[in-house]
Design goal:
By secondary structure, this protein is an alpha/beta fold. The chain is built from 9 helices and 6 strands, in the order αααβααβααβαββαβ.
């Protein structure tokens, strides 16, 4: 979908939200909003975190892992911790095709996104086989929900995920990195550009590291992540 169509879709969604009763995605009450004030206040908003990988970190200092092995990306902002009910909402979006969730959570992501100006805002792409299976890219839907809420346009064709990879769930960090090696290919140059990458969940950061590495090899000056939710540090 083009950015022009995404902007029209955002406007139509807003008009429908004003005219039709809509249910809060958490409690189910009709409030003419996708997320009522009470449920929004109860969501597990991110607290003090590492500015590079967004893992919980007292004092907001750079964590030991990022100091020891800095990732290819420069910073990460997470809207939420991956905890109830955000974990359930994201599952509902990805596997239940509940696009109202993307509208609700993407709106909050637009509010917490970094205030710096970016040349491009880019969702993490899916491989065409996964996209055909699922029918949509959840990261694209979250980014589209940001259009018109301080975001003017998103880039949908900057990278391609040209190699189908195994599902990341259950793999170690080393296995995830190996799984994603050369998975992404740039379709344009990014010389001197600052890129904001949008994704739904950050677990080990391996996917976002692979994306950032690809972008920087194509010339990007800076890569910052904006994720809906960050999982806790592994025990």
């Amino acid at each position: 979908m083009s950015n022009q169509r995404a902007r029209w879709r955002a406007r139509i969604d807003w008009v429908l939200e004003q005219m039709l009763p809509t249910a809060c995605v958490v409690c189910g009450r009709a409030e003419h909003v996708r997320l009522c004030d009470g449920c929004r206040a109860d969501l597990p908003h991110s607290g003090s975190a590492c500015p590079v990988c967004a893992i919980n970190c007292p004092g907001g200092q750079v964590c030991g892992a990022c100091l020891t092995r800095p990732p290819a990306f420069d910073a990460t902002v997470a809207a939420f911790r991956y905890a109830h009910p955000v974990d359930r909402l994201i599952q509902s979006l990805k596997y239940g095709h509940d696009l109202a969730v993307a509208h609700a959570l993407g709106g909050i992501m637009a509010q917490v996104r970094p205030t710096a100006r970016f040349d491009l805002i880019m969702p993490v792409p899916l491989h065409r086989a996964r996209l055909a299976q699922r029918g949509f890219n959840q990261s694209v839907e979250l980014a589209r929900a940001m259009v018109g809420r301080g975001v003017e346009a998103i880039c949908l064709d900057g990278l391609v995920r040209h190699r189908a990879t195994m599902p990341q769930a259950g793999l170690s960090l080393t296995e995830r990195r190996r799984n994603l090696r050369r998975a992404f290919v740039p379709r344009r140059t990014f010389v001197g550009q600052s890129v904001l990458v949008v994704d739904d969940v950050m677990t080990t950061g391996a996917t976002l590291d692979a994306v950032a590495r690809c972008l920087k090899q194509a010339g990007a000056r800076e890569v910052v992540n904006l994720v809906c939710a960050r999982t806790p540090a592994p025990r």
